[in-house]
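Q&A log
Question type: sequence-to-structure
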Amino acid sequence: MGIGTLTTPLNPGDPLQTQIEFADNRLLIDLCGEYDRNLARLEHELGVQIIRRGNQLHIMGEAALRERAVETLQTLYARLAEGRELESGDIAGAIRMGSDRLDGEKQLEMFRSGRIEIRTRKKTVIPRTSAQQDYTRALFDQELNFGIGPAGTGKTYIAVAVAVHMFAEGHVDRIILSRPAVEAGERLGFLPGDMKEKIDPYMQPLYDALNDFLPGKQLQKLMEERRIEIAPLAFMRGRTLANAFVVLDEAQNATEMQMKMFLTRLGEGARMAITGDRSQVDLPRGMSSGLASAERILKGVEGIRFSYFSAEDVVRHPLVARIIKAYERDEQS
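Response status: OK
Response body:
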């Protein structure tokens, strides 16, 4: 049962209706959304009908679907009761977590209670799918983690959030974020400016993630002090990365030699997260991806964890998941 809610059959003789009552009408307004758009989304996604009457919601539909709707509503209400805002992605995440109930009721309970979360200076990140929760747990538990899956599944975003959290808690002294400097069909040489000015636009997704988690002035100061560093993969050669949280993004574009070089930079007290999408390799034809070779060679090595994501874990626009699935079907045909 969610915080401050009561669920009962609407009519004892009518098994196709359920009533859920909410203690705080102000939170219920936020739960329903402007013009009840959140309820409309739940109706569409879960295949039920929801009618609002005062501080009660009447849910109609098949028993299993009503149960999922009740669990989802209680999960979202509990989030609001903890003083957190309700975003579109949270609704999608709660629906997905409810769909995984038969495979693991504990996952929904963790999401509902908020125990799996990443706190940073500017925001709290809550994993929205089972895969994201397992990945988050692995980032805290293991020193070396791989996150592999399609774009939009939160691989890099969650890794950077964990890096900022561990830095703020004093578990690491530095954050180092890196990417291979491989152009996605373009040539950096044609861009104006010096090397930093050429590289910075390519590193922009990493800057964006950091800006989500740290105030601007603090981030600028930490970067000036080189306690937070963003650099191309080639700049890692010859270094020992100790007492740092290191994230390698777009790892599918690292060569086999670069990947081995990067992995062997791991120093005392350091943690690494390597993220990549096997379907978006931009390396020249005939050159093997270091991510693929690492996955093959390091599977089963103690202390290394591989987390996998699918189109079901996409937390961007819902259309992104459908695009990914369409491409996957085309590749299999």
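Response note: The chain is about 45% helix and 20% strand.
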